[in-house]
C-alpha cells in the first residue's frame, strides 16, 4: 500500500515547473565578485542597486559595498530574476533565476535557483552552440534527465562544470529545443536516467563499466557511431609517466597533473618510451552516453531527436 501511494505521489508531481539549485563559478574559488542586479537583500535590509555592488567574503560572512557603505550578513540575496556576476579579469556571466551568495572560509559560494527548463536550455546552448535542431533536442532531453535524476552536491544540487553540466549563457536555438521537448526525460526500468554525454568518440561509445564509471541505475551501452567512425578526431600526447590505465578516474587524474586536454579521451593506444608514454587516441571526452558529434551527424542525415536518443541510450524510453 505504501509503495503504491509513493508511486502515485511521484507521478502527481509535475516534472516541469521543477527548479534546480546550481552552484556557479565555484571553479574560481572567488574571494570577491561584482554583482549587477535590481537590488539586494542582506542582514534584513533591502537595497536598490543603481551600480554594480562589490561583494567580498569575510571568513564565513558576506560583505557588500554599495554607495561607499559596507553591510555584512551571512547571506546576500539578489532581487529580480536576472543578475550578472563578474570575477575581475576572469569571467562575467548573466543568470536567469534567483541568486544568493554565502561565504565559507573566505570563499564566496554563489548559487542560482532556476527553472529547470531554463537550465536545460542554457546547458544545451553551452554544450552544442551550433548544433542542428534535432541534435539539440536530443541533448536537451539528456540534460533534463541528468537534472531530474537528482542532485550531486551538498550546498546545492549541481555545479556548473563538467563534473555535472556546463552552464554558460542562454542562446535562442537552445530555448526552442528545450521548449519542444518540455518535460521529457529518459527512463530505464522505471527510473530516470542520469544521462551522460560527451564531445566525440572513436568508432563507438563505451559502456560505463568499460571506463570504470558508475552509470547509476543505467549501465550505458557501447554503440557504433557513424560520424566518428568515418572521420574520428585524432590526438596524440606524450606524458612523463610509466604507465596509463584506461579509466575515467585515471584520465581526470592525468588532466589535473598535466593540463585539461592532456588525455583527450579514453579511446587510445599507448606505447612506452624512454621519456614516458606516447598516447595516440581518438575522440574527445569520457565516451559514455550520447556522442555530440555523432548526434550532429545523425541530425544532418535527417534523423529525429527520438532516433538519436534511442541510438545512444538503448533500452530507454522517453517520457514525462
Ligand atoms: Zn558537480
Ligand atoms: Zn561519436
Short description:
The chain has 320 residues and is an alpha+beta fold. The chain has helices at residues 2-12, 116-127, 133-148, 172-180, 226-230, 248-258, 292-300, 305-312; strands spanning 19-24, 32-36, 39-42, 45-48, 53-58, 61-66, 69-73, 76-79, 82-87, 91-96, 98-104, 107-115, 158-159, 185-188, 191-192, 197-198, 234-239, 267-273, 276-282, 290-291, 317-319. The chain folds into three domains: 19-114, no CATH class; 117-198 and 300-319, no CATH class; 199-299, no CATH class.
The number of domains is 3
- The N- to C-terminal Cα distance equals 24 Å
Determine the structural class based on helices, strands and strand pairing: alpha+beta
Oligomer type: single chain
Strand content: 25-35%
Please report the total strand number as a whole number. Answer: 21
Please tell me what the overall shape is.
globular
Give the integer mean of the pLDDT values.
Answer: 93
The helix/strand series, from N terminus to C terminus, equals HEEEEEEEEEEEEHHEHEEEHEHEEEHHE
How much helix, percentage-wise, in residues?
25-40%
Number of helices: 8
Topology diagram in text:
Elements: H1 2-12, E1 19-24, E2 32-36, E3 39-42, E4 45-48, E5 53-58, E6 61-66, E7 69-73, E8 76-79, E9 82-87, E10 91-96, E11 98-104, E12 107-115, H2 116-127, H3 133-148, E13 158-159, H4 172-180, E14 185-188, E15 191-192, E16 197-198, H5 226-230, E17 234-239, H6 248-258, E18 267-273, E19 276-282, E20 290-291, H7 292-300, H8 305-312, E21 317-319
Parallel strand pairs: 1-13, 16-20
Antiparallel strand pairs: 1-12, 2-5, 2-9, 3-4, 3-8, 5-6, 6-7, 8-11, 9-10, 11-12, 14-15, 14-21, 17-19, 18-19
Helix pairs in contact: 2-3, 2-4, 3-4, 3-7, 3-8
The protein binds zinc ion (2 copies).
The site of one zinc ion has 6 residues, from strand 13.
